Amino acid sequence: QMRLVESGGDLVPPGGSLRLSCAASAFIFSDFAMSWYRQAPGKERELVAGINSNGGSTNYADSVKGRFTISRDNAKNTVYLQMNSLKPEDTAVYYCHVWVFRDYWGQGTQVTVSS
């Protein structure tokens, strides 16, 4: 059964950094684009960043451009989100996503940016 497992969320002060990881299993990871989404309390889930199957193309929400970097290691079936210069408005549950004939989501990892 296909599975996505996120990790790396934490409480960090404004200006801090975190790296999220998403480990994938039970599908041919290197064949599919991957994405990170986030959902803050009371808000809709939004796309944060995406990466194509070989890592050669990425896209970002305007709110995170220049601060976040998405990457992947196809040998490890893992996608990452490096988050720098974190702001309180980045506080959210972060989800890993892949579309393989339907949407698949991980369980999410909480990122809280607060002093």
How far from one another are the termini?
Answer: 40 Å
Structural class: mainly beta
Order of helices and strands: EEEEEEEEEEE
Enumerate the spans where pLDDT stays under 50 for 5 or more consecutive residues.
none
Count of distinct strands: 11
What share of residues are in beta strands? over 45%
What characteristics describe this protein?
globular, 0% helix, 7-stranded mixed sheet, single chain, 4-stranded antiparallel sheet, mainly beta
Q: What's the topology here?
A:
Layout: E1 3-7, E2 11-12, E3 18-25, E4 34-39, E5 46-51, E6 58-60, E7 68-73, E8 78-83, E9 92-99, E10 103-105, E11 109-113
Fold and architecture overview:
0% of the residues lie in helices and 50% in strands. It is mainly β and 115 residues long. The termini are far apart.
Concise description?
Helix content is 0%, strand content 50%.
